[in-house]
Amino acid sequence: MSSVVEARPAGTAVLLCDEDDCLKVLLLKRNPKLAFAGGVWVFPGGAVDKTDYNDTSINTCSLARLAAKREAFEECGLNVSEDTLYHFCKWTTPVEEKKRFRTWFFVGSVTLNNSQIKVDGSEILDYQWLSPLDAILAHRRGSLNLMPPTYMVLSLLTHFPNVASALDNLSNREPYDVCPKMSTDSESWLCLYPGDAGYEKGDPNIDGARHRTHYDTKGIQYVHSGADVGYPAMNLP
Length: 237
What we know:
The chain folds into two domains: 8-178, Nucleoside Triphosphate Pyrophosphohydrolase; 181-229, no CATH class. The relative contact order is 0.17.
């Protein structure tokens, strides 16, 4: 059995704005030629690197916050203060993957001004400001390729009418921490999450609680069967 690749610490900035009485979120399109998540729409972010270690006494979460700030500027030209980025969840790439990240997700706000957005043209090719619901609907139509962490964050954001309500909730909630286990069934690719009856053994066919995402031709679909899971639903405030 091959050894598990260590997950690199990383930070992602979920940047919000209010436009026309609607909360919108910034999504960036990764270059299809990239080995990791090519062609997928993501939030600005990337791995912690040596330039983030300007103070060796700070903890990993703070380093990830600095990485999120740096990547927001490098990928799309936005200068965001790390003091206004609030940690609300953490996702770790499944152990089955050869390239793994332990990613802290931070939420913050910016003023909508399209002239401020300048994608790097290399790693990032395009951007969109979308309402979370519009992003999910575009994903279901097949026009917006997403990964499960992005989909789950967008699902959570659909519950907030504006930036103030989103920041108030997400900055005060207990952050969830999840490392999916990958599996398949006869019709779809699966990610199993803590609390799913099959999570520990990585077996989606074990009877019991369901906490997973299905990914098939209809896009990502999240299943949380309720109180039997024992782990909070990641798409609810």
